[in-house]
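FORM 12-B: Structure-to-Sequence Request
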């Protein structure tokens, strides 16, 4: 199972709001739909539904959120120029969204996106969806 699929389908939890402490800190988040998650595992609504259920997360739509970031396993090593160009287009859409955080369920996507963000010194944080959920549910991070 993928993390969000496990929470929603195995644990039967689709709404995380009841698990949240009193909300003080807000998160502006955009979501990258990874190719492997959506096309290979067939998971698409679960991550978005969980993010939307968090009262302190504003989920901001990103243009072409479903488009590949360009990492794709060995694709990035075989075709680095194309991979970088695809990643730069993804990062441009992240910036255009106005979100403070980009999240995804695929660590390879996040590493690729984070590397491009860091290289350009863009003030957007990349976080795995489990980290966004943890910080949203953790009272200490709310202060």
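FORM 12-B RESPONSE
SEQUENCE OUT:
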């Amino acid at each position: 199972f993928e993390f969000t699929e496990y929470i929603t389908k195995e644990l039967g939890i689709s709404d995380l709001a009841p698990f949240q402490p009193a909300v003080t800190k807000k998160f502006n988040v955009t979501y990258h739909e990874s190719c492997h998650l959506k096309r290979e595992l067939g998971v698409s609504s679960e991550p978005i539904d969980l993010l939307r259920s968090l009262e302190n997360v504003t989920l901001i739509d990103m243009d072409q959120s479903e488009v590949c970031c360009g990492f794709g396993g060995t694709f990035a090593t075989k075709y680095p120029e194309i991979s970088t160009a695809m990643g730069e287009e993804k990062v441009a859409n992240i910036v255009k969204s106005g979100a403070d955080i980009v999240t995804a369920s695929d660590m390879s996507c996040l590493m690729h996106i984070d590397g491009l963000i860091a290289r350009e010194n863009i003030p957007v944080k990349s976080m795995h969806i489990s980290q966004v959920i943890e910080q949203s549910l953790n009272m200490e991070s709310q202060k």
